[in-house]
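We modelled the chain as a single entity of 198 amino acids. Its sequence is:
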Amino acid sequence: MIAVLTRDQLLEMFRRSNALLRGHFELSSGLHSGHYFQCAQIMQHPRYAERIGREFARRFRSARPTAVIGPAVGGVIVSFVTAQGLGARAMYCERVDAEMQLRRGFTLTKKDRVLIIEDAVTTGESSRKVAMLVRSFGAKVVGIGTVLDRSGGKLTFPGIRFARLFKLAFETFPPTDCPLCSEGIPATRPGRVKALVI
């Protein structure tokens, strides 16, 4: 039997890998926040990545996914380790002109049962776009999973099974109403950022 990955164990991974940051960030959703979760900091440690992948595999095994897809770049490793735990194909999609596309020879068929795995979600827009892409091939979306839900648990995907390993209520702001912007603090895009570790 596969051991459950607890919230406390996951939080300890965050702390040990310096994954939770403070600063002024422009999220992929376009919103601004004073906090950011850098999943890549966890995923650089294979033992942590493997534990996370096994937990997603445990949660979604009954859905019988044949493929696991993550949006690039953040979802690439976590979708791979999840697929490894399920014995499914691992692939990723890329944003081209604001839309998700399968490239590099990746494809799906009507027989595929697809699990979408992300590193972190705020509005869920990336996952919704990946789901639309999957359906455009005639494949079935059997679930969506994320390491971190930044909505604090408010986010849902009607009609789709959704699993979050961790949730935090990061306050977010539209750029036009951001107090950090009002203070003249420049916003940085995660991945190219120096920030204070929480």
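As a brief sanity check on the tokenised model: Strands lie at 20-26, 32-37, 67-71, 89-96, 99-101, 113-121, 140-149, 162-167, 172-173, 196-197. The first strand starts at residue 20 and ends at 26.
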